[in-house]
Amino acid sequence: MNTEVINYIGGDGSSISSAVKIEGANSFSSGIEAMFDYIYSFFNPRDIELFEGRVIFFSEIIIHHVNVITKKGVIKNFYFDTTSFHENTSFDDYLTMLPLMGKLVC
Questions:
Q1: Rounded CA gap, 26 and 42, in Å?
Q2: Taking burial as the number of CB atoms within 10 A of a residue's CB, which of 3, 35, 68, 70 is the most buried?
């Protein structure tokens, strides 16, 4: 039974300073899934041509930057404060992430 309650707080995700903070993720993989759920609230997954992502480490915060390009050429950047769940990376491995890969419709 999944008892996670994901909350999106903070900014609108349009820049590092207004990053969307994801709270409530109990693992790295569920935090990543929450990021994509947030992105999919803006775009239909079938309309997305490409995702590009990177991780930006600051002394006090970890930011995931995801650049989305749609099949119609729309480009949108999303910035997420992933500090709260990024510390759980060592407990996840690639097998944990495999189910999420099916959600990435490109």
A1: 24
A2: 35
Which residues in the chain land under pLDDT 70?
A: 1-2, 87-106
- Average pLDDT of every residue of the chain: 84
Tokens read off for 46? 């079938």
Long-range contacts of 4-13 (CB under 8 A, 24+ apart): 4/30, 6/30, 6/34, 6/37, 8/34, 8/38, 10/81, 13/38, 13/78, 13/79, 13/80
For a pLDDT cut of 70, what percent of the chain falls above it? Answer: 79
SS3 106: coil
User: Which residues constitute the domain of residue 53?
Assistant: 7-101
- Domains: count for the chain: 1
